[in-house]
Amino acid sequence: MFADRAKIIIKSGKGGDGHVSFRREKYVPNGGPDGGDGGKGGDIIFVVDKGMNTLSDYRHRRKFAAENGEEGGKRNCHGKKGADLILKVPEGTIIRDAESDKVIADMSGDNQRQIVLRGGNGGLGNQHYATSTMQAPKYAKPGQEGIEIEVRLELKVIADVGLVGFPNVGKSTFLARVTNAQPKIANYHFTTLNPNLGVVDMEDGGFVIADIPGLIEGASEGVGLGHEFLRHIERTKVMIHMVDAASVEGRDPIEDILAINRELEAYNPKLLEKPQVIAANKIDAIYEGENEIIENLRKTFEPEGIEVYPISAVSGKGVKELLFAVKALLAECPQDTIVFEQEFFPELCQEDEEPYTVVFDEEDEVYVVEGPSIEKMLGYTNIDSEKGFLFFQKFLKQQGILKELEKLGIEEGDTVRMYGLEFDYYK
């Protein structure tokens, strides 16, 4: 089975504890504190490996942890940093928080490496706590705990073109003809269980095509292997509907296309916005290459802007015209890979040792909000995007910051400042 989903537990390293020690030298009877700081815990880092195409490495092992930081030592010696743990995944892998189902990272496009969990900071040694009244502090700060969460890895094949159709319409034969892929071909329903990828080479540049396994009605509700396969269509830019124009199995090609489109719409309505073409296959089995089925396909779908191309995947007739039409549609599509925005920030799961502050600066007449969690959030959120800004507003509400501002008497139109950024307050 194609391993395109896995659930694992990941944990970043704990920061090393700060050390308590004092200088003890022969001629220095009352040496001061010299406890070193603890080392930072290791990070959990996900990296794209171009040579991988499944998540099978994560099917039999459940837990992955980075190394803890070492404790600080005597004579101001800093503890060693814990080793990072690098987890390799195929391009197109989405990492979600298992509990909330929100996206932590999408390993696609330019995002080839991402720190998903940061290790805990090392604790400070007792040398940092010496004061004029406390010259021999016996306290050092413990290291910060690492973060442990359960994540879902989900692979969505990155292909320019998705090839869809009911079983036995000739998709695998077509893919074998036009690409370097070598799919297993046999006359059985649901022959293809894995999305087969192949590269179509053309004179002015090629494209990647994915044979999406045969869909059935109810796929969008998870019937059969529906969800497993529908997810792969999400990243494609153009869809080829392949139908059996010779009606070898007595199927109605028009109803087949409508049924698949219903499943696509039920799963994600945006999928129907993608350009589509119809490959009316098996014309080698039709006398003179045209018939009533092809005529009806044209009458039904060409008025909607969906072109019909009669082809034979066996003989190759009409295939070249179909590929040029697909190439033309791709040229009109946005060229960027679809990348899902980050929605979940694991760092905010850590408990902050310092509370946030909300004060009114009378001199500048602005409300000032500061604190470690605020600073982290601003660092991880793209507040220039509408989605990011809404997420940030939700965070302020959940943390009780908006309530604090209201207690101080904030009114609509007043200015709020957070680490150099200023916002107008509106309910």
Automatic annotation (TrEMBL):
Gene3D superfamilies: GTP-binding protein OBG, C-terminal domain, GTP1/OBG domain, P-loop containing nucleotide triphosphate hydrolases. GTP binds at residues 165-172, 190-194, 211-214, 281-284, 312-314. Its cofactor is Mg(2+). Pfam families: DUF1967, GTP1_OBG, MMR_HSR1. NCBIfam families: Obg_CgtA, Obg_CgtA_exten, PRK12296.1, PRK12297.1, PRK12299.1. An essential GTPase which binds GTP, GDP and possibly (p)ppGpp with moderate affinity, with high nucleotide exchange rates and a fairly low GTP hydrolysis rate. Plays a role in control of the cell cycle, stress response, ribosome biogenesis and in those bacteria that undergo differentiation, in morphogenesis control. This is GTPase Obg. The lineage of its organism: Bacteria, Bacillati, Bacillota, Clostridia, Lachnospirales.
